Every structure is written in C-alpha cells, then in structure tokens.
Amino acid sequence: MSGNYYDAHSHTLGIVTSAAESIQKQFALSRSYNLLNVTFNSISDGMIVIDSDSNIKRINGRALDVLNLTLDDVMNLDIKSLITNIDFKALLKGDKKEIYNIESDFKIKNDKIKCIVNAVPMNVNNKNIGMVITFKETKHIHKLVSKLAGFKASYTFDDIITENKNMKNMILLAKKSAKSDCNVLIEGESGTGKELLAQSIHNYSDRRNKPFVAVNCASIPRELVESELFGYEKGAFTGAAKEGHAGKFELADGGTIFLDEIGELPLDMQSKLLRVLDNGKIIRVGGTFEKQLDVRVIGATNRILKKEVNRKNFRNDLYYRLSVMNIKTIPLRQRKEDIGLLVNYFTKNLSIKKGTEVKKINKDYVEKLKDNYWEGNVRELRNVVERDFYLSEKNILVSYEVENTCKKEEKTFENVVAIKTLEKEAIEKAIIQSNGNMVQAANLLQIGRSTLYRKVKKYNIAYKI
Ligand SMILES: Nc1ncnc2c1ncn2[C@@H]1O[C@H](COP(=O)(O)OP(=O)(O)OP(=O)(O)O)[C@@H](O)[C@H]1O
Ligand SMILES: [Mg+2]
C-alpha cells in the first residue's frame, strides 16, 4: 500500500498487517494442500475417498492406473457400482467399523480386476463424513506371498556334482531347455536329482527372478487337486475359505510350476491341465472368469510315463504336450565314477556344517560303495555317508554295514531264478509295508495295479483285501 504518510488514515497499518497475515496463511494452506496432493498421489496403493452417500470424491493416480480409468470416468460415481461384495451402507452407517484385506472384484466395463481392499470410515464429531478405501491388485500380493513363502529355487546347475559324460550331456540338454521356455518332463528313479534339475532349469531361465512353485501331485488328496492347482472362489465347496483362494498356478504367474510326481495326477485333472497348457488360462473352482497366466511347467516322475500312457493311466496328448523337452536322469549305479566325487562332496558339507576338520576318505570305502545297487540313488548315498560320518569316531570315514542296507549289484540278477525270487520278495515286502494297500504297494514297486495282482497270483502271495 503506498501514498502520502500524512494523508493516511490511522487504521491503514492495521489493514496492511491483517492483509499480510491472510496472504501468509493462504500460502501455508496451498503449500500443505499441495503436499497432501503429492502424498495422495505417491502412495503405492490405490486410494479412493467417498462421501457419506458413497460417491467417489477423490481418487489417486495409482487407483486410476490399476482400474484403467480416467478421473472423468469415476468422479461422483457410486462406489457400490464398482464393488459389490462389500456392504458400504453398513460401514457408512457405522454398523460395521472397518474392514481389512477383503478380496474383491472391481467391475470395470466388462472386466473384473481382483484386488485386496481395506475400507475405513471417516468420522468427525461422531458424524460419518465418508470413507477411505485403499486397495492393491491381487497379483502383486501373490508376488509378495511367493517372496515371503519361499517359492524360490535354491539349486543351480553348479550344484550338480558329476564327472559322467552322459550326465554332462543331460545337463547340456537341460540348459538348452531352460533357455527355450518349453515345457519340460524329467523322468528318472527316486533320488536321481529330478527336483535339483528342475530348480536349476528355473534358475538358468529368464524366469529366475520370478516364483518357483513346487507341487507334489501325489500328496494332495484327489478331491483337492483342482482347487490346489487352480484355486477356488468363495463358497466353492464346504470348508472353502470365505474369500476364495489362489491356486499354485496363480502363485507361479511369471515363473515356473514344478509338478512333481505328475504321473499320479488323476485322469480328469490331466485333461484340465492339458487345457491350461494349451491356452495358458485357468478358471478357479466355482468361478466363471478365465484368467490368463504365464507359467512354465516342469513335470517330474519316477515312472516311465510312456508306459503309463500305454496302460491308459496317463493321457497321450498331455504326455506329448509336456514332454516337448524330455530329460531322463541317470541312476547312480550307471555312473560309478560319481560315487567318490559325491562322497567327498557330502563329507565336506557335513564337516563344514558341524564345524569339524574334514574327515579323510579311504579308497576302500569308496570301492565298497561302488558294489551297491543304489536303489535310492544319490539320496540313499547321502544318507549312508551321513550315517557313517556321525558313527566314525576317528578322523576317517568308516563304513557301517553298508551291505545290509543296500541290495547287491546287478550281476546277481543274471540268474533267472534270482530275479524271480527277488521279485517275489519285493512284492511281499511292498504289500507288508503298505499294510495290504495294493495301490500303495503297486506305487512302491513302480508297476501298475493290474500287473501287481497278476504277479501276486503267479507267486501265490497272500494279501489282505
Ligand atoms: N548330482 C548330484 N549332485 C549333488 N547332489 C545331488 C545330485 N543328485 C541328487 N542330489 C541330492 O540328492 C537328493 C535327492 O535329489 P532330488 O530330491 O532332486 O531327487 P528326486 O529325483 O526328486 O527324488 P524323488 O523322486 O525321490 O523325489 C537331494 O538332496 C539332492 O541335492
Ligand atoms: Mg523329488
């Protein structure tokens, strides 16, 4: 304010002072408003503010991104038209306090966007003035779950100990498969490193930073296989969690799913799996919406799957779809040069683990081990070495009744009578160990059930029904 000082009214200074004060306040207000705005838009969750009539009054950039909408699309829209499974009326009336982590679908045009939603009513002087809704896309939660739940592959090709030429070729093939992104089928006896290989393939592929989800198809009860693999919607069956549940395929999105013992998959599930492999889409149990996923499948089995196809236990089309890359692991008895190497490796690891001096290994010790049949392959060898490591008191590895725990080498099988005897013994043992459960016994013997019954009859073996 300017002018002649003598002509000014005495109140002028007061006017100037209060004008300055209000300018200052206005500045502060706009600065904090800007700060609020910037904060609102930098939050990594979607955020929507509604008024007490449930109309959208504010929405942040993240929410617009996730829902693929513009500000004009949503301003003043009733939130109830977007989300139907949350009772906003009850929340606004104060009948319900707040809700956390509800899985909801945002219905946008013809799309459904799955999100985990929190809603907290805003009250001023006991009067509801609206609500803050925050949400995250479910697929991000899945990524987080994978990270936290340890859906990670720890082994790499460097962990595969071998000097064998065929093994090295197998690793070469596995590396090529890893880069190809095709489905892989790994066949081989128990303990030959199928899981080790599957993890190594994942870690060698471009999916290495994404989840590796392992599922043992044999250990899931038959009636739960589908929901375990593909998830379920709320209320899909009695006992289902209220909010529904993501399946292993969804959790593996972007990464690899390892279907261990895939030969045990029931036939009806095999056809569902085939469909998923064909189009990459899953439908949750009790759901209607298809979801596009990007998952690479690695299957493993200790059966010879082609034989199971001939026996009609495994679908032919699924077999071919899966075994685009077919890798066969090699039994330990066919690569004896690896035994010494593995004994050294396991002993060293045990010494490090126990913090003791590395135990020495006699040549005799290794030679003796080479005579065994190694039905349980590397896993069995590791167990034997571990036991001997703890039982040897001196600083040298001493064998402890190895002969009693393992079958003799193949050469004893030359005699026809011996094979028969061994077969009969094996069947008897399997039936006793399975308590007469013939399905389990057949699994243990790695033969079909009908073959088992035929042999039981042939050898006149007694069994419970
Ligand atoms: N070549 C190898 N070098 C080092 N360790 C190995 C090797 N092969 C197997 N192992 C080890 O042997 C154990 C069994 O391997 P893995 O679980 O991968 O076998 P598998 O073929 O999946 O067996 P199963 O059919 O019984 O599930 C693991 O502890 C693994 O680390
Ligand atoms: Mg395994």
**Low-pLDDT ranges:** 407-415
> How many extended strands?
14
What percentage of residues falls in helices of 4 or more residues? 40-55%
Output the radius of gyration: 33 Å
The strands making up the biggest β-sheet line up spatially as 2-1-5-4-3
Oligomer type:
single chain
Which ligands occur here? adenosine-5'-triphosphate, magnesium ion
Note the total helix count. Answer: 19
What general form does the structure show?
elongated
Structural class label: alpha/beta
Q: Name the average pLDDT.
A: 88
Largest sheet: 5 strands, antiparallel
How much of the residues is beta strand, in percent?
Answer: 15-25%
| First-to-last CA distance | 108 Å
What does this structure look like?
- With 465 residues, the protein is an alpha/beta fold.
- The chain has helices spanning 12-42, 61-67, 71-74, 88-93, 138-148, 165-180, 194-204, 225-230, 248-251, 267-279, 305-310, 316-322, 337-354, 363-370, 377-391, 402-405, 416-433, 438-445, 449-459, and strands at 46-50, 56-59, 99-108, 111-124, 127-137, 184-187, 212-216, 256-260, 281-283, 290-292, 296-301, 325-328, 360-361, 396-397.
- The strands form 4 sheets. Strands 2-1-5-4-3 form a 5-stranded antiparallel beta sheet.
- A hairpin with a 6-residue loop joins strand 9 and strand 10.
- Helix 17 packs across helix 18 (438-445) and helix 18 packs across helix 19.
- The longest helix has 31 residues, at 12-42.
- Residues 407-415 have low confidence and may be disordered.
- The protein binds adenosine-5'-triphosphate and magnesium ion (MG).
- Residues 160-162, 188, 190-196, 302, 378-379, 382 line the site of adenosine-5'-triphosphate.
